[in-house]
């Protein structure tokens, strides 16, 4: 720090331009989930069997799907031209299958083929245009545009011009000739190699013999361009045939581009094929446009050249816009949509198998076997006619076209049969050569990729998985731009001083945890200690290793005690309990001198520190925070360890900026609470995930609440559905919005980025800041990461447990803090959606809309539940609707009044008793709902929604077998719906201003004013006072209290006399007067829960000096060694406290101003939400009262019957009247169903993601072997290779090079890393100061 600047304080907060988000598409993100589980042998075998079954099923679907798709496309193509009279055995036998064709049917065939080919391009076009609109462009790769345009032209020419003149069998053998250019390339390479100078004659002759088969295969495939033109009058597309075959063969560039093209003219094609580079949005847009334009142009030319009579443009409009399932052209378009869906599903399966490293067998891959299977099926069908095929095709206006040129007579085959068989054999062989499996060493880093473009007319070309090892590449193949910077440049990138072993800092925050909670977190840390040591000692290649260091930050860990007449500050009972528990669990013994060598006590500027060496060598730092010296609470503890570990440890270390950047990239902070419980495997799963995807700023696990009681049962189900649905949907469709502080892994370089760590130190200056910043610090930190462009992901297999509130009051108070903070941060993200969407590629406008719906309907929860309760009671008890509405509105209205006028304890008592009462009401809701389902049947909208929701919950539980028992707790959840969705929501919103000292009572206490109670509180106090006085009179308690008071006064008078007699001797009078008095009567807190009272600086300094070493001499800490803080670290802590963590000094007037602002904010938000909910509830009830006029008549199906009570007879009777649906209520149900459906889809995809991780682990276990001994650590840590499958990296130099793995953005140079930006800013500031001083 020669320039007088603090490196540790280099972090910044400022407005910045959008940064590129992740370079991975959603399915690639899904394929990158990597986890590790220790399986027993029996479970391992079952998973292996399931894996094999799934592999076989996927292979069958791929092969048969490709055959079906190919046949449908060729059937449509061969039916473009009218075939009035077909000859052959099939046509004669199946002549009764009458095909009715019109011009609109022909137009439907054209449009269907166009849709199959161009729909994927249209979707790609829209996606690329949206990305380019956001500014994410790139350099146009012209070679890809030209080749893809040629492929589109070739396939369209064949489909619209050539295939209509052929039969199905000849179309199939012709499609096997597409590897024409690939065979030509092999021939030329072999001949050039033979002709190379310097070779012996024998070598040249041998290479010529090698080239002969390739030349012969080329000549055979080339004959497909002219053979049929030799048949007089039977084939007229003499020019279209060779043009289409050659264009398609050239456009099939994946077949003739391989690793030998790296560094050549075709280097860009090589990079795209093997996913070394991702196709950028500009190229994607150009490719999509060219393919669509070329296909449409060829189709238009075919319509004109095929000489269709009475086929006009109106027929195309009619076929496309006139929807009728009775018309064959509509059925054709629906069939095309089905083929498109099949293609998408097949590509997903291919990606899925690649993610599992389970590639289809080469000999049964669709590219090598589909033409052969389809040809065999066509020949068999034509020889053994199956008229059911003809009848089904006739519904679509299609015919099964067999050979129309030559009919077999007396076993004589057609003249072109043998050459066609050779074409088919060569095509299958070349397809096998292209898709054949390659085997790599277990230590190699593999990239798997798929063709970037989907070809609907020849889908087998788009199902190939290409694998390539980065370890086998030459260095020149990987580097795009050579680094020619000065070797002595301070900013030159070199990673020779820091290895790539990850460093994990486990940081726990504690306050007043119980012994059980402390034991739980210590046990987890000790397990990590053992696992870390085992892995660091294991030198096996591919083994995941990490350095570990533990930090525990004790809030409010000090207290004033008086010992031997001296008042001093020493650790409180909670730390003493922690220290004794730590000694017990580690089994540390005293040495000969009565000391513990692994325990060191250190004085620090923030209080004190205990340094412990755990049994396996991990250092555990226990930081004892004194709230008189440093800010307390969890957020400021997080600021402490962020700046200490990332600022002081990384930024202040004497390494180059590049090495510090690598340290930041390989450093992670594991944030846990003081009661968290987890296994080492949970951390490893998060580490694998972070190492696999460099754009992830944080990864969190599955949190399981533990404890006893009904409230814990409720939370078990609540946490389950929140993780099953909400968190999974956020992970799949966007980003997780909240990383829980009880178990989350943060990337150091992400926290060090702009607008994150530095902005996290910001103190609240506006009323909403107190809600957003201090009530939910975990949620705010997550919001900062998301807005800066980092992903937060959820790993369901990474389990952790934490104690949940067991009491009703504790639960309500916890949610009183969480709910406003969650809403405030979500609203902040929604209001700043443009910046969030620009910076974070995972946050789309659709995801923003989804979050808006979720937060909107959560605010309408009280009205929705209120109306549900009203109508359920009406249906269950047959009461008058007005009376029921009043009966339910009164208790809720009273609770609202209590929330505005009384303290929290009164509100909670009322809410508790009303929750019990409404639990019985929910039984009426259950009866009414069941009755409605029986009467109106399941197809009624409300009944359908309820049944669907229950079925989905049960289905979700089945998908999570280890958590299936949580579904049982859904009973408690159901009974507590009114409590949590009405009373808890109102309690949280109306107490928005309660932020510890933000209430009027705390302000009055701090300012010395008398608290003015509300009339309701005064009345309650008066009643309680009367009862208390009556009890005293009855029990004679008042007389006893007077006697005790007289005795105390006599003792005090005696002490005063003693003080006066000894005052000349210098005895402390105050000590004598206070002697024997209860501690709580003579001491008073020097600060409120949030705010320390201002203290004289000199007095404070004297107290700190006196307590410097005294606390180390306490009876339990005297066994520890003593240490001293290094001067550099001491300076750091002093500067950090002075800059960010100095206890806040606020005047009573400022506190009152904040409290008034919070109250105004509360009033504004609470009254708005109350008004909206009241209007909604009133609107629903009024519409129900006028249901005959304002309802929508709904009949699920023709002949629908339901049961209705006859008002005249009072009997239930069946009726065919349509159901009367409330439009407003139906709209709410519909939106809730949409949200539930989206979350269900997200859950399914996330479970698929988890299954991929499980199969990856099984594969690793299989490769390294599985021990039969339970819980034995196995060598199963080779996930780096498997986890990076499907990666589309834009820069292999930084993404996959052997000297480091750093966060890389697509459109930024290598200087875009975090520390480089900070260094540049510091150098710029230094130059600016130098220029000013020179002037």
From TrEMBL:
Q: Which Gene3D superfamilies match?
A: Spore Coat Polysaccharide Biosynthesis Protein SpsA, Chain A (3.90.550.10)
Q: What is its main location?
A: membrane
Topology with respect to the bilayer: Multi-pass membrane protein
Its domain of life reads Eukaryota
Catalytic reaction equation(s): [(1->4)-N-acetyl-beta-D-glucosaminyl](n) + UDP-N-acetyl-alpha-D-glucosamine = [(1->4)-N-acetyl-beta-D-glucosaminyl](n+1) + UDP + H(+)
Query: What are the annotated GO cellular component locations?
Result: plasma membrane
Please name the Pfam families in this protein's record. Chitin_synth_2, ChitinSynthase_IV_N
What residue stretches are annotated with the Chitin synthase chs-1/2 N-terminal putative transporter domain?
Answer: 45-431
Q: Which residues form a coiled coil?
A: 1039-1066
Q: Does this UniProt record's set of keywords contain Transmembrane?
A: yes
Keyword set, alphabetical order = Cell membrane, Coiled coil, Glycoprotein, Glycosyltransferase, Membrane, Transferase, Transmembrane, Transmembrane helix
The residue ranges crossing the membrane are 49-78, 98-119, 140-160, 172-195, 207-229, 235-253, 285-305, 329-349, 847-872, 884-903, 909-927, 934-955, 967-990, 1165-1183, 1224-1245
Record flagged with keyword Transmembrane helix:
yes
> What is the main EC category here?
transferase
From the Swiss-Prot or TrEMBL record, what is one GO molecular function term? chitin synthase activity
> What InterPro entries does this protein map onto?
Chitin_synth, Chs-1/2_IV_N, Nucleotide-diphossugar_trans
Enzyme Commission code(s) on record: 2.4.1.16
Please state where this protein is localized: Cell membrane
Q: Which GO terms describe its biological process?
A: chitin biosynthetic process
**To which protein family does this belong?**
Belongs to the chitin synthase family. Class IV subfamily.
Protein name (record):
chitin synthase
